[in-house]
Amino acid sequence: MATEKKSVLSVKIIGGYLWLITPLILILSFMSTPDQKWFKIAESIAEINFSSSGLAEIDVNGKRICIGLFNDTLFACTQKCPHAGGILSEGYIDTAGNIVCPLHRYKYSLQNGRNVSGEGYFLKTFPVESREDGVYVSIGTTNIFGL
Ligand code: FES
Q: Are the C-beta atoms of residues 67 and 58 closer than 8 Å to each other?
């Protein structure tokens, strides 16, 4: 009987603090920065097998992404189009430096993922760097609460 009262009391105490704990957890999860781990994808830009359209599909830590080369600058984005899953590495880069999806021709800025053809989608992009010792991509991973 005493044990039952103790556990009921514990639940009431914890429940009483839920109003405080829940927003705190949400705030901390949004404030924590995603782990930006860099992955080496090639020894040099020349090693990447770009198509004639300047795009390539590569594997980064088990994730397929699209790499683009435009005006000697590298870009990286998700492999699948946010509209209906078109394979972006099978598209092309237009003269303004936007990636064009091969399925419905929606266009996205390679610099920031903005849907420049105006359909309201957003393409996830990744930082990519060509360094002295190779080409690196950072694919964002989840933060401490997996959000
Ligand atoms: S799937 Fe890419 S524009 Fe529709």
A: yes
Q: What is the pLDDT along the chain (147 residues), one digit of tens a residue?
A: 556 666 666 666 666 666 666 777 667 666 655 567 899 999 999 999 999 999 999 999 999 999 999 999 999 999 999 999 999 999 999 999 999 999 999 999 999 999 999 999 999 999 999 999 999 999 976 555 544
Pocket test of ligand 1: the residue of 66, 104, 122, 123 to mutate, having most ligand atoms within 8 Å of its CB, is: 104
| CA-to-CA separations, 35 to 3, 138, 143, in angstroms, rounded | 44, 9, 6
Residue 58: phi and psi, rounded to 5, are: -135, 165
Burial-class residue 29 by CB neighbours within 10 Å (0-12, 13-18, 19+): middle
Query: How far is ligand 1, taken at its centre, from the CA of residue 47, in Å?
Result: 29
Counting ligand 1 atoms within 8 A of each CB, the residue from 55, 101, 115, 123 with the most, and so the one to mutate, is 101
| Phi, psi of 79, deg, nearest 5 | -75, -30
Q: Determine if the pTM surpasses 0.85.
A: no
